[in-house]
Amino acid sequence: MKKYFLIFVLSLLFSQIPEKRIIAEWEPALGTMIRWPLGIPQELVIELARDDIIYVLVETNNQQNQAVNNFTNWDINLNNVVFINTDTYSHWTRDHGPQFVIGEDYWKVVNQQFNGYPEENGCDQNLTITDNNLSIGRPLPYGIRGWEEDDNTNIDFANQMNWDIQNLSLYFTGGNFMTDGYGTGFSTELMVNENNLSNNEFQQIVRDELYLLNYHIFDNPNVLSIQHIDCLAKLVDSETIIIKQVSESSPEYDCIENFAQSFYELNTFYGRPFNIHRIYCPEINGGWWEINSVAAYTNSLILNNKVLVPQYGMIADANALSVYEEAMPGYEVIGFNNNTGNPWYGEDALHCRTMGIFDPNMIHIAHKSIRTEEIVSNTSIPVEVNVVDYGDFNTDLESVVLHWKYSAEDGPFGEIALELQVDNVYRGTFPSLNSNSSIEYFITAVNLQGNSVAHPNAGWHIFNTLEFMLGDVNTDNSINIQDIVLLINIILNNEYNNSADLNSDNTIDILDVVQLVNMILS
Q1: What would the CATH number be for the domain defined by 363-464?
Q2: pLDDT (tens digit per residue) in 452-477
Q3: What is the reported pTM?
Q4: What is the DSSP letter of 143?
Q5: Helix crossing, 42-51 with 61-73: angle to 10°?
């Protein structure tokens, strides 16, 4: 039986998980693809290999031996290292590395075309979409080798992993692509232009070949650059995004603000606005080829329960980490300076030089998180999740559990078992919650093999209860017959009380009495 289902929480808006979909960065990962010779610092390699696998691209046995010797000296567990033999020109594994398509009994490595880094004008240039807007891109030293050496990376990787390949008839640079994991993609217009296609032609191909039913193409917000979206914004879950902010003195300030405003005007997979965080990116001494270079704090990597953020040795570094901690509560946020010969730049940083490799047998939890502004009552707040076990579609799960606590308390988290309803949809309710309180919660699912996953992948969701409890007319933190008596008196006296307006229609009448009676009886 197919396990993609309708999801709804706290609203009547339904959203269907795509049968096949491109995996999002925050989903369960086996590890990270990097390249030897390295373009990242030693400390980052050690962290990537600490709990997960590093898939290291090497061209020769000599390179592999060099890597082994260094990893051994760094006390890296070689059991967490897989070498992939392939030709590579660059260390930007994000850009030429694999995307992954998952579905019921379906797992494929996307083999896109790759031909380097065309640059394009943007910002206030008001240029039409033509080939003339594209420059030759980043220079290639000496002209002896070229980007075409990176073009077969995904084929060699997939063959070594014994995974199927899905060829894509597009240039599809990974740094200029984000997805929510539910069939929506995001890129700047350079993604379309470098393919010499119209917007409609591009949209049709990604619908047919990548199952991206919604694809948002943004105006190029930089004056002249490779216009990669991962240097502008960072989706950290399907409904939360961190967006770059620059100084008002920057010539790109208005363009970046217009880019950010575009996200305020979009709805998420669940039909509601994005949670948007801004991250201030001050000027840096970037590469000689960069224009208006600023810190690329959005160019970070999410790896299971961690988020790894580039640092530039400046005061703004600490603020960048704080923004991630606020947007991703409970994740381990780690900053990395780059003291190698290839420092972090403005249009190239940590995310560009790493690529997540995901688990084809993952368990996936889809959940419309509870938002403060959508709560109508502090009693019986419903929770609903859809859980897809891609490793075993035909077996029920061992458990699906809601874990929750008041933020003001140290813990432990209380547990509420969510009950299977139909077709892998699990439901439950919070107990009656105190008013004016912050609540932390997360959801876990465990299959019969003991494999588990959480939503969010690490940490917790946070929401605040109403300042008053609907139905608690006498404010004694209990709903009972006394509240009914007071509610009737409010009606007779033609008064108004927020806690007595149970159906939120700004009127206190018999309908509120009926709803309050039902609350007590239930």
Answers
A1: 2.60.40.10
A2: 999 999 999 999 998 877 788 887 77
A3: 0.88
A4: G
A5: 80
